[in-house]
Amino acid sequence: MSPDGRHRPRVPLRLRRGPERWERQRSTWREARPAVIDGALKRALARRAGNWFVLGAARDVAPRKPFGRTVAGVEVVAWRDAAGRLVAGPGACPHLGAPLAEGAVHCGTLRCRWHGLALDGAAFAGWEPFPAHDDGVLAWVRLDAAGGERPLPRPVLPPRPGPAGTLVAVHTAVGACEPEDVVANRLDPWHGAWFHPYAFVDLRVVGAPTEAGTEGPDEFLVEVSFKVAGRAVVPVTARFTAPEPRTVVMHLVDGEGKGSVVETHATPLAPDDRGRPRTAVVEAVLATSDRPGFALARAAAPLVRPLMRAAAGRLWRDDLAYAERRWQLRRSGRYPG
């Protein structure tokens, strides 16, 4: 029996009856109207982020080693201070410009490997820290000059399941596109069963915003089954929303894993050596379940997390190809949307 009183099978899997071949499944191109996707994208891009950008997984910023990333063209270094708090600031040493990400952290102090200049997170010798935030899953940095908005004291975070019963994995991938191309991909749920047949089947969008977004909730509601093996699937209902311009969130609202969340964050980086924009996709999966067996999965988290990241990596190899193609079409004036 589930918490809401409904009977639930002992095993979450279902067997599809009469599965269709890929080429015989129902076409979705008529439903995936460009005006609906572009309207949802424009409304997402108009929302405030307060100049906050995702650096990476919180676990990536370890106690003894600095973490470096160029965000929106700004070289950033991050590390943990003596209390374990996240610190971030310009990635160039104020002395002679050495890369601070190649330094070392000792007792919460970052030392430049060129001449030993020490930074404890406070302003020093012209070096000024950036506002930083660790939400327990992701590390964020606020870049007011790059963001150009009115700053917010904290990042815009979606509702998440409580940490006590949650298994978390974060995957990062990089593509030659802009953040809006990643967000547009996530605001097109209709492509799932066609573009990712190894992962999704029986996909149906049962709710979508209007083109202008003035009626009803600004969300996509999707019924879909995750493929496990053969005819075995796990059916769920998912809701997609965009709380800020560089984030799309999927909440599982019904089915196995109800309450789980997948957050997709798009962080602009520096252009590549050909001048093309680059975007980091930082995807956080926060899985939860009230089934007794899920406690075993959490206990085996070091083994399960790589599998979760591998699954996300396979999906994003495809989805980054989608995002990169969209950027190429936009750049050449051939985008049909």
TrEMBL record:
A Pfam family matched in the record: Rieske
Keywords on record: 2Fe-2S, Iron, Iron-sulfur, Metal-binding, Oxidoreductase
SUPFAM superfamilies membership: ISP domain (SSF50022)
Domain Rieske: 52-141
Source superkingdom: Bacteria
Keyword Oxidoreductase: yes
Record's keyword annotation contains Iron: yes
Protein name: DUF5914 domain-containing protein
Upper taxonomic lineage: Bacteria, Bacillati, Actinomycetota, Actinomycetes, Kitasatosporales
